[in-house]
Design a protein that fits this description.
This protein is of the alpha/beta class and 411 residues long. It is built from 15 helices and 15 strands. It has two domains: 14-216 and 393-406, Rossmann fold, CATH 3.40.50; 231-389, Glycogen Phosphorylase B (Rossmann fold). The chain is 39% helix and 16% strand. Helix 1 crosses helix 15.
Length: 411
């Protein structure tokens, strides 16, 4: 019998992946795409400006313009944007309601040229979703966030309800009828949601036509660019790793508070800063705060796995990676929906969430002290989630779902 996800009868399936640009939405696509490619299938990506060299990973890449007009402006500044309701509204409307039909046409042109048997979309990529519908291609929606599990808790729920009528008009205009969970569009054929019951809870209701799949870390590349991790910290466990992701990375006030709280525990903080906007703001913290920019993927995962604890924004990507490596997390959500991820983290016992009004040095130090204990209950819980995530090959399971949908099956 041929293993699921592999070629059978010498048939090659053509699969087009469409992630949205943030890093946390891109990396979950890489392992399933690699699995399919390695098993002889034809794999391509629509590239909306993703921060990954897709060609270096061996994929066909179709670069088309971002459909969100102010994406470049927002990148790295979302922490500030999130505090301005008018800018949040504009950002959401641009992303989900008022994008030009030309964005749909651009995606449809790729579909026509590449001729995929199935299109795998991030649930946020509305132009590509509509293009796949218009082109009558089977579609799988890859839900890389867990927002669909508790949409009523999402902080955008009022805005979603206000704009939903206009969103439906946009889809009906093209003869499309889909279900939505907050901003994510669900496929009528099949959906995959990254997660395991050990993380989301046994009683959590999963949407119809949706399969839970375990995460899989993307493959390493020997020639992938990146900075090395500080050698004196490798394997020491004497540090806390801090990252606010690819969108909200510049939060110097929070970073300095975390570093001072960590120093009070006798540990140093390693901050993944990406592009530092103003290093002068950090003057005087050199002994307690080590800034690294773009770590090589191998060193990034070593840094996560070897940390006493991880502090992050509870973005779906960074949170999933940390749990896959079994490290407890202090979550400081700052952007829409991240509190949902942080609540799941607390419910499974693998971390602590602090809201915006709770981030004094004293509160940060108290939370970190609980997390960094070598055999803390938080580390034990993170280890249980890690073991559950690794119990099956998520990339293979996802590939099986994609090939089933390509064959005309539905969940």
């Amino acid at each position: 019998m041929t293993a699921p996800g592999t070629k059978s009868d010498n048939r090659v399936t053509t699969v087009l992946f469409v992630p949205s640009p943030p890093m946390g939405h891109v990396t979950p696509f890489l392992a399933p795409a690699t699995y399919l490619r390695n098993n002889g299938h034809r794999v391509g990506f629509i590239d909306y400006g993703v921060p990954v060299d897709l060609e270096r990973h061996g994929f066909l890449r179709f670069r088309i313009p971002d459909w969100v007009p102010d994406w470049d402006e927002a990148a790295g500044q979302v922490a500030a944007l999130a505090q301005d309701p008018a800018r949040v509204r504009h950002y959401k409307e641009s992303s989900y309601i008022t994008f030009e039909d030309a964005a749909i046409d651009a995606a449809r042109n790729v579909i026509t040229a590449f001729d995929p048997d199935v299109v795998v979309t991030d649930g946020h990529t509305y132009p590509a979703i509509l293009a796949a519908h218009i082109a009558k291609r089977p579609m799988v929606s890859y839900l890389v966030t867990r927002f669909a599990l508790t949409p009523d808790l999402h902080q955008d729920r009022d805005l979603v309800n206000e704009l939903h009528g206009r969103r439906m008009e946009r889809f009906v205009k093209h003869g499309a009828s889909f279900d939505f969970r907050v901003w994510e569009c669900l496929s009528n054929q099949g959906n995959a949601l990254i997660g395991h019951r050990a993380f989301i809870g046994e009683d959590t209701v999963v949407p119809e036509r949706c399969r839970l799949v375990n995460p899989t870390l993307p493959p390493e590349l020997s020639n992938e660019p990146g900075d090395p991790f500080p050698e004196d910290l490798v394997g020491s466990g004497k540090y806390v790793f801090l990252s606010f992701g690819s969108q909200v990375y510049w939060q110097p006030e929070n970073a300095v508070r975390v570093a001072r709280a960590t120093a009070a525990l006798g540990l140093r903080t390693v901050w993944s800063t990406r592009e530092i906007v103003d290093p002068q703001v950090l003057r005087g913290t050199e002994d307690i705060l080590i800034c690294v920019r773009h770590l090589h993927r191998r060193d990034y995962y070593r840094a996560l796995e070897g940390a006493s604890a991880i502090v992050n924004h509870a973005g779906s990507g960074g949170l999933t990676e940390a749990l896959y490596l079994g490290t407890p997390i202090l979550a400081l959500p700052c952007w829409t929906g991240q509190a949902i991820e942080a609540r799941l983290l607390e419910q499974c016992g693998a971390g602590i969430m602090l809201g915006e009004s709770e981030r004094s040095e004293a509160r940060l130090a108290a939370a970190l002290e609980k997390l960094v204990m070598p055999n803390s209950t938080y580390r034990q819980a993170a280890g249980r989630v890690r073991d559950a995530f690794r119990a099956s090959d998520g990339a293979k399971d996802f590939a099986e779902l994609v090939l089933d949908v390509a064959d005309g099956k539905t969940l």
